[in-house]
Amino acid sequence: MDSHGRDAATLTGRIDRLDVRIHAFVPEPDREGRLAAEASAAAARWPDAAARPPLYGIPVGVKDIVHAAGLDTRAGSALPPEALAGEEATVVRRLKDAGALVAGKTVTAEFAVLAPGPTRNPHDPGHTPGGSSSGSAAAVAAGAVPLAIGTQTVGSMIRPAAYCGVTGFKPTYGRIPMDGVIANAPSFDTLGVYAADVAGVALAAAAVCDDWRPVAPGGGLPVLGVPGGPYLRCAGSEALDAFDAHVGLLREAGFEVRRVPVMDDFEQIRAQLFTMNRYEVARTHAGWFAEYSALYRPETVAAIREGQAVTAREYARAVRERADFQDRVASAASAHGVDLWVTPAATGPAPRGLATTGSSVMCLPWSHAGLPSLCVRTRRAGRLPMGLQLVGGRGADERLLAWAPALEAAVAEPGRR
Questions:
Q1: Is residue 156 scored above 50 in pLDDT?
Q2: For a tag site, which of 107, 142, 202, 353 has the least CB within 10 Å?
Q3: Catalytic residue among 133, 156, 359, 367
Q4: According to the 3-state scheme, what is the secondary structure of the chain?
Q5: Structural domains in the chain?
Q6: What does the radius of gyration of the chain's CA atoms come to, in whole angstroms?
Q7: Residue 1: band (very low, low, confident or very high) from pLDDT cuts 50, 70, 90
Q8: Quick check: 217 pLDDT over 80?
Q9: Residue 415: what pLDDT?
């Protein structure tokens, strides 16, 4: 066996060993053979070790709504894969062009909506890993792969990152092309990346985002804004206590933190998003649902039926209200001199049980606004992890990731700084 075969066998063995417990990967009949062939092809493409690209040889998990050549896309569903087939996604091609190897497809909630997949939280298999990018977050948290691709429509990147204790990055809406990805709600769907830390996320972001222009660290610390009002009160007491402790650590590290009154109409904002979301879900699935409705799980059926009940006029009004909300968030940040918003990444630690994927409400307004979001790992207040969510300005993804290491260090577990 050559070195590529040995590496493929090692990776496959690690995935198989861990997946008995966490079920993060979609089963694949000859993962080892495929990986050995991909590794050999990469070595032939870049024979000069000094000229190899930044992700050379790094295995990446790919959420199973993202098309990758040679692998079926099932989207966590019972639909025949030939009905869902499509061309390889640009994000996968960019990963391969950066030298990465596709370790396999990672489990998703059915069609990235609500119905959970079989993945379990690596910290306690009796708890959810979050969703819908459950397999991607859990695979990185368990150490099966160092990098994984997910998507977020409302909270599907940031919440699993918090529950699983990894770093998750959702760029500005539209920053990574969405071709080759099965849609949920196209006005919100955004590809993102998971890694163990900010440095890993930044390396991947530079490879997959459009027109990435790295920003050099320096220029002082960002001013942090805490959104006051009904939004923050959606978090549970455990999350709020941990968040208060994290804010205290940030102040000790020299960050200025300002509490900003914003989103007093949070319930209306939530309604706007779900009006748009459900309307778009129903239209995304119109053809498939007409033919295969009996194969859909009840949670997805309910979401589609809700969307079918939304009128075109209601949808158009929600679109207008969303544009106004986006302007208001930007204006509030500008008026108060806020560079980054900081919030709990989830309403609390991962809930017990696997019947749901938890609440996405802490991510909801930022997804609605299309802003770049990052979950960084924090010191634990209890047995399960809880992350800190950082939200940047529209298009300021590079600046967010340049500032993030200082915040990451401030709230990290002792010994991880």
A1: yes
A2: 353
A3: 156
A4: CCHHHHHHHHHHHHHHHHHHHHCCECCCCCHHHHHHHHHHHHHHHCCCHHHCCCCCCCEEEEECCECECCECCCCCCCCCHHHHCCCCCHHHHHHHHCCCEEEEEECCCHHHCCCCCCCCECCECCECCCCCCHHHHHHHHHCCCCEEEEEECCCCCHHHHHHHCCEEEECCCCCCCCCCECCCCCCCCEEEEEECCHHHHHHHHHHHCCCCCCCCCCCCCCCEEEEECCCHHHCCHHHHHHHHHHHHHHHHCCCCEEEEECCCCHHHHHHHHHHHHHHHHHHHCHHHHHHHHHHCCHHHHHHHHHHHCCCHHHHHHHHHHHHHHHHHHHHHHHHCCCCEEEEECCCCCCCEECCCCCCCCCCHHHHHHCCCEEEECCCCCCCCCCCEEEECCCCCHHHHHHHHHHHHHHHCCCCCC
A5: 51-417 (3.90.1300.10)
A6: 20
A7: very low
A8: no
A9: 64
**63 is an active site residue:** yes
Polymer length of the chain: 417
Distance, CA of 97 to chain centre = 22
Query: What would the pLDDT profile of 326-337 be if each residue is shown by its tens digit?
Result: 999 999 999 999
pLDDT in tens, 183-202: 999 999 999 999 999 999 99
pLDDT beyond 80 at 19: yes
Omega of the bond leading into 293 within 30 degrees of 0 (cis) = no
pTM of the entire predicted model: 0.97
Q: Measure the N-to-C terminal CA separation of the chain; round to a whole number of Å.
A: 40
Active site residue 96: no
Residue-wise pLDDT for 357-416, tens only, equals: 999 999 999 999 999 999 999 988 678 999 999 999 999 999 999 999 999 999 998 765
Distances (CA, A) of 217 to 168, 220, 223, 405: 20, 9, 15, 9
> Catalytic: which of 77, 96, 132, 133?
132
- Chain segment 97-140, per-residue pLDDT in tens: 999 999 999 999 999 999 999 999 999 999 999 999 999 999 99
Token couple for 329: 């968030």
